[in-house]
């Protein structure tokens, strides 16, 4: 008979402010702007036909998907290594590992993009060091291209990949690993046959999270892509702020939102979404 | 785990490389900020604090810092009050009945801010909220609600619902129960939510790029212009200050959590 | 007991459904002023739901809760003025003992001076005045239980509701607190309603017990009456242990009948005014193991059955015997050890005897 009381009207009133704020100042602006995609410049799905006809639109979508996939795979790989190390670390060491994940997570994305620019640009620290050391004579093109974007995006996404994987790894009973070794399995076999399968839900959750975050990401690709490699978010901004083509911009925004919602819907069958977005929601 | 089972050499080295990849590039801005040169570089003949001086005496930078701070404080107040009440309501009313609200609360985390930003750009025009303090506060405050809802819900998950029943059974009204029983218990969760909501607003750029232009010119906006226009060591100094500020906030959060757990 | 001085609480056809599941099924019950009533039943019997409906935390699907004849069903919990001791106590962990006890007074807007005085009185009542400044987590389980009691009594509630108040304590402490609780009830003379699944606690504390099963009220009465004259197999089985003897009714007459069970003819006496069952009907008897004696050589009894001991156990105060009888199957008997002449052994032939009023006809439970 835990909490099955009778929640009075008062409790609903508590929800009201947040609900109303979200409805009026979040949902309404988004719905309103997305409907523009079928009303401007003329009523109908003309804007959406551009996906099939315009090579520029197709190029942006393909670039975005390519960068997203590469970023997701790399972030998962690196994130898995960190989560694995955290899970198996001694309590003292664990604190430092967690710090190495959480601090970057909360440092401003602008600061991080700026740091990468400092390191990667033509006269940046890496190129200068390599030239001074005589390894290369001409600076390497490390930034303002897809390479730079991926470096910065993976850096941004690794902490997001770590968190869901870590929470699912921590549910693994450590006695299982000891038992497997006791039964004669090598370390590699324990990992392959016990640890990896048990951590898989976390990996899937992390993949979904990183993928959908990467799809609509704006700042890092805009700074590290230098305007030459466009992903959808920057492309949308370009359509609306510079070219004033609301129809096209909002069409792409709608496609972006749909892609994310569909991804979530598909994977919500495989993995608990609460695992992705934290316990509270 | 107790540390008796350890990762192999490959796993260990990959973890180390990743940790360095995560941390080192951020730390690189520190020596750059201390350079004695006038361009982005490592210090050559010694360290210098003149780029910090440049930032801390510049009315533009200080103005933006102050504006970002006041916006973040106002937005945090909005997020915390709406988010906390909502989390408590959802906690008390059954999960099934509040499913819609819960999903709604997740949307700002799921939908890219570029989509919201163009929406606001169009929506705020007729309302006269473009390039206004209030407009940015609303945008940041509303999108900060999920952070508060999540941290407060987590705090409530460990709150014994019988305490609420006990209070009501002894004659306490809803507001008395809230003030004297529920809020004191979940204060650490609310504080955590406040810190996250604050950082969310303080760092937010995409919305600001669309709904603010001249009168409202926040710190991230100024950094953005700096990165795109003049890459000088003053930028690195700003970055260092931001890193220190974020670290201080996170430390405060950690200390508070530890105290409430201990 | 004091049930004669008018009714403090009444349940009229109380029903609570959760979807198609009926947690409480048409329960009607009167609780007298100053009475200590215990709702007893296995888990899932609906006893806690009834208590929560009385407290106002659960809205009945049908029926009413009456306080001194007035319908209070629509009142929210905070308007009912009932004291409640929750399972696990639900003490506010961020408040001291005194602040916890003062809480119900504070919500009623009582002045600080008046509050302090009442809190002191309530803490004295449970002998915890010295612990007023402590936090709940600094107290032992028994002390926490007493704080919960003080908090539930400090505002002069109309009723005191206790939800498994002793279940979190160990056995020894539980026995001590049972006595304290009983003494407290006598001293303050208020109506207590207690919920428990512990039959010993129910028997020792209550003026009256209401036994519940599957959401239904099965039988209510004083502990002795319930134990001695259970009306159904469930009551006989749940409250203590029982043998069940099945047979056909022969020679019914006012005051008793014969039961033909297998080869045996058993004499059954009924209390005054209880009509005997019809001849030829099937009847089920409940026979408590401690009402059976092992007869000495040549000793007589109204009912005698012969058998052999299958197994036995020494329990300190008594022996527990399993006996395979000639016509009645296996029977359990408990013998006090002070009958030292008797030394049980496996395979030992024994003659069992009991009085005509020892076996009680009970109804089969309808599921």
TrEMBL record, chain A:
Q: Record's family? A: Belongs to the binding-protein-dependent transport system permease family. CysTW subfamily.
Cellular component, GO annotation: plasma membrane
- The segment(s) forming the ABC transmembrane type-1 domain are 61-267
Cite the CDD domains for this sequence.
TM_PBP2
Q: Where in the cell is it found?
A: Cell membrane
The identity of this protein, by name, is: ABC transporter permease
Provide the transmembrane region boundaries: 12-36, 56-83, 95-115, 147-166, 194-223, 243-267
- Name the membrane topology term: Multi-pass membrane protein
The record's annotation in Gene3D superfamilies points to:
MetI-like (1.10.3720.10)
The scientific name of the source species is: Neoroseomonas lacus
Q: Which UniProt keywords apply?
A: Cell membrane, Membrane, Transmembrane, Transmembrane helix, Transport
Matching entries from InterPro entries are given as: MetI-like, MetI-like_sf
Please classify the protein's predominant subcellular localization into one broad category: membrane
UniProtKB/TrEMBL annotation, chain B:
Q: Name one GO biological process term.
A: transmembrane transport
PROSITE patterns attached here?
ABC_TM1 (PS50928)
- The answer, when asked if DNA-binding is one of the entry's keywords, is no
ABC transmembrane type-1 domain location, by residue? 65-253
Matching entries from InterPro entries are given as: MetI-like (IPR000515), MetI-like_sf (IPR035906)
Membrane topology category: Multi-pass membrane protein
One Gene Ontology cellular component term attached to this UniProt record is:
plasma membrane
Q: Which residues cross the membrane?
A: 14-34, 65-91, 103-124, 136-159, 180-199, 234-252
Q: Which Pfam families match?
A: BPD_transp_1
Per UniProt, the keywords (alphabetical) are: Cell inner membrane, Cell membrane, Membrane, Transmembrane, Transmembrane helix, Transport
Q: Where in the cell is it found?
A: Cell inner membrane; Cell membrane
Q: Which SUPFAM superfamilies match?
A: MetI-like (SSF161098)
Q: Which family does it belong to?
A: Belongs to the binding-protein-dependent transport system permease family.
Q: Know the name of this protein?
A: ABC transporter permease
TrEMBL record, chain C:
Q: What Gene3D superfamilies does UniProt report for this protein, alphabetically?
A: 2.40.50.100, P-loop containing nucleotide triphosphate hydrolases
Gene Ontology terms describing biological process: putrescine transport
The chain positions of domain ABC transporter read 9-239
List UniProt keywords, sorted A-Z.
ATP-binding, Nucleotide-binding, Transport
Which is a Gene Ontology cellular component entry for this protein?
A: ATP-binding cassette (ABC) transporter complex
GO function term, MF aspect, one: transmembrane transporter activity
The entry's protein name is Polyamine-transporting ATPase
Q: Which organism is it from?
A: Neoroseomonas lacus
